[in-house]
Amino acid sequence: MNDLAYDQVEHARIVLESLGFDKERSNERSARILLALLQLKPGDSWSSATAPLLGTRAIMDWIRDQYGVDYKPNTRETIRRLTLHQFAEVALVEQNPDQPDRAINSPKWCYAIPPRVLEVLQAYGTGQFYGLVAQYLREQPGLISRYAAARSLERIPVALPDGRPITLSPGGQNRLIKKMIDEFCERFTPGGQVLYVGDADAKWAFFDEKSLVELGVVVDQHGKMPDLVVYFTAKNWLVLMEAADSHGPVDAKRHRELATLFGQSSAGLVYVSCFPDRQAMRKYLNQIAWETEAWCADNPTHLIHFNGERFLGPYG
């Protein structure tokens, strides 16, 4: 790293420390990420900082090209979790300002410096900077609350069959999961007990571990759970449902994974691939495993059974 690059990284570290970040969040990695978000190359004046929309991969590539530090693909999660998420929590960056309801697992997920923060950072190196920082820090709790409230408004409210309310992160498959709970469960597992709801944002949006244990299922937190697990008490079935619009259906491989994960269940296992509509299902028709069910949210009163001797029931 040449002198100009070293100096610019040090400036970024000073800025982060001035904003109250601890040692971990003001280290060289975080400093380079801030520079990428501001598009500040070695030697650039901070007054020229900009605030484009950047994904994690784009940030890593820019740092490699401008500062000669090549972060390996396996460090992507570290950058996202230990720096970008920390920046977002204190409103230093905004996530998806162009589309707040973007799915958490979308490849278009992006970050940008908000205009109010950009105004402060562009003043670095001038006599106004520390005064603007002090003013920003006084405003910061309000900014954090405002951004948090906006994110909360975007969340999807869901009522479980027993009336308990939960919320799911916006966008992506979670809108389909809501329909699975609202539409499928009402029709095909009436009186059923929801034991697990997945959410890409929090992974375990709802998890009734005690009831699963009572059915003989002990789930490893690292195990790959289906998107929705419902215990249909009237039939003693454990219905394992996948929201297949983005990750694919219950294919032969997934069927084996779920059969292993829930292999000790005292309830019979039923596998259901769920789609937003038949057009989405058509893409996966040749992948759906035999002896499973398929359901389309646009025709919620119908099920499609893939072979086997019975309709909507366990095998084995």
UniProtKB/TrEMBL annotation:
InterPro entries: BsuBI/PstI_C_sf (IPR041963), BsuBI/PstI_N (IPR041454), BsuBI/PstI_N_sf (IPR041962), Restrct_endonuc_II_BsuBI_C (IPR009528). Residues 156-309 form the BsuBI/PstI restriction endonuclease domain. Residues 7-144 form the BsuBI/PstI restriction endonuclease HTH domain. GO terms for molecular function: DNA binding; magnesium ion binding; type II site-specific deoxyribonuclease activity. GO terms for biological process: DNA restriction-modification system. Pfam families: BsuBI_PstI_RE, BsuBI_PstI_RE_N. This is Type II restriction enzyme. It comes from Actinokineospora terrae.
